[in-house]
Design goal:
This protein is an alpha+beta fold. 29% of the residues lie in helices and 44% in strands. A 14-stranded antiparallel barrel has the order 1-4-5-6-7-8-9-10-11-12-13-14-15-16. A two-stranded antiparallel sheet has the order 2-3. The longest helix is centred in the middle third of the chain and has 23 residues, at 157-179. 18% of the residues are buried.
């Protein structure tokens, strides 16, 4: 199960590039081939040849529905011609008429058994209809053919390499899908370098107004200067993350899973550690998946135990079409802070997301709502109710690279006002508006190794100046799966 998330985008880009290559190859052949119907008159053959040229152009322009309709209109007169059959197979495969494409490709391969492009297309069709053993066998046969000296004599090295890369990605995808019915174990190690402009999320102010009370009456008013540790602290950092994931199918529809991840972030101020453990039970039915699970998290700061979370979670995914998917999730639990009891909360969060995948672009829109409720009434001012809206998109660049970006907005309204004798915020209720922008680039060296560059900027605007801040994070990381 050695697979990274952007693999499907890689497959999509590879298939479209490959389709254009396959379609373009036949245009170099004579349309008046010996296999063309001999009974066709010269004027009729010219008309049909023009139509096949148009069919080729439609496939190269990825207008597969129009290409398929045109191919059907020519089928009675032109079926059996190699050029027509290739174009028909491409159009049929891309319009979900996969069985027709398979029949045509088998006929073509009977004439041209060493045509690697045709065999890749046949294997891809088998993969589309979930005939994984047939797809795997066809891909492996093609790999063997590409390694033969005869193939190297007929194609240049770059063409052979491109086809080998496509095949390897499909073989990995097939291995992943087959592993879903078997126990699977995956481990990852991530090493990163980065820069954080405001690791303590502090306001960029030098002082703050303060009022001291005596018998609930203001007794002294002044202005307090903030020391260096209370102002924004910038730092470079190194990050090391190790993670492990295990899943075991119970039957074809149900499986159990468990994962653990530990992260250590070493900066010039105070080191951060994070431990996360998850476990769950998944039920699958057709295009719907439901998972019930539990999560525990621990956070540490400078070697001290900072925060604990224990949550239960239920998620539901529904792929209601080939390009659309919805996700609904709800979690509830507790948060405890050993050093500050005012941050002990009962928490809940719900979210609804919808994802659209079309060709080489994946987009996700998500709405989230949640609440952190203080365990004790006297700390109600620390609790909050929040709403967020986020939009993310990802697009491949070629076969090994991806660009992604995200925009997030969160509104947090705190549950109660500060005490009427609070030094800084007497009788004031906090409200935050947070905007975040994320952008990144991912390069897959191979299916086990990838390099990532990311940038993030947060602008938190609060009605209380002490919580008004901006923060920028830059990071580059290497991830290895094994």
């Amino acid at each position: 199960m050695k697979l990274v998330l952007p693999l499907m985008a890689f497959l999509t880009a590879s298939v479209l590039t490959y389709s254009a290559t396959l379609s373009a190859e036949v245009t170099t052949k004579s349309l008046n081939s010996p296999s063309s119907p001999s009974s066709t008159t010269p004027s009729t053959r010219t008309l049909i040849n023009d139509s096949i040229t148009k069919l080729t152009e439609l496939n190269q322009q990825e207008k597969f529905k129009q290409a398929y309709e045109l191919a059907l209109s020519l089928r009675a007169e032109w079926e059996g011609d190699d050029n027509y059959d290739v174009q028909f197979a491409i159009a049929a495969a891309r319009t979900s008429n996969t069985n027709e494409a398979i029949f045509t490709l088998l006929r073509l391969l009977n004439k041209q058994p060493n045509n690697s492009l045709l065999r890749i297309e046949l294997a891809r069709c088998y993969y589309t209809i979930n005939q994984l053993p047939l797809a795997k066998a066809a891909f492996i046969t093609t790999l063997h053919q590409l390694n033969n000296s005869s193939a190297k004599a007929q194609q240049n090295e770059s063409e052979i390499t491109a086809q080998q890369q496509i095949i390897q990605v499909y073989l990995e995808r097939i291995a992943y899908q087959q592993s879903r019915n078997q126990s699977a174990w995956e481990n990852k190690l991530k090493v990163g370098l980065g820069y954080d402009s405001n690791l303590n999320s502090a306001a960029n102010i030098d002082s703050i107004d303060a009022t001291f009370f005596y018998n609930d009456e203001p007794a002294l008013t002044g202005n307090l200067e903030l020391n260096s540790k209370q102002q924004p602290l910038a730092s470079g950092y190194t990050k090391l993350q190790a993670s492990s994931y295990y899943q075991k199918p119970i039957n074809k529809r149900n499986l159990i899973d468990a994962s653990a991840a530990v992260t250590h972030k070493d900066n010039t101020q105070e080191d951060l550690t994070h431990l996360s453990i998850k476990a769950g039970y998944t039920i699958k039915h057709n295009q719907q998946t439901m998972r019930i699970g539990a999560i525990t998290r621990q956070y540490g700061l400078a070697g001290d135990h900072l925060l604990n979370q224990l949550l239960s979670q239920i998620t539901w995914q529904w792929g209601f079409s080939k390009s659309w998917q919805s996700l609904t999730a709800f979690e509830i639990g507790q948060q405890s802070n050993p050093n500050n009891s005012s941050l002990n909360f009962n928490t809940w969060q719900g979210k609804i997301a919808i994802r659209h995948r079309q060709k080489v672009l994946s987009q996700t829109l998500q709405i989230t709502s949640g609440q952190d409720r203080a365990n004790k009434a006297k700390y109600a001012f620390q609790g909050r109710h929040y709403y967020s809206l986020s939009y993310q998109l990802q697009s491949p660049i070629g076969q090994r690279q991806d660009l992604y970006m995200g925009i997030n907005y969160r509104l947090s309204t705190y549950a109660d006002a500060y005490a009427n004798d609070h030094v800084f915020f007497a009788n004031k209720t906090r409200q935050d508006n947070e905007h975040q922008f994320i952008a990144g680039y991912n390069y897959r060296i191979n299916y086990r190794t990838s390099v990532n560059l990311s940038a993030s900027h947060i602008n938190n605007h609060s009605n209380l100046a002490l919580f008004d801040y901006q923060r920028t994070l830059l990071e580059t990381a290497l991830t290895v799966a094994f």
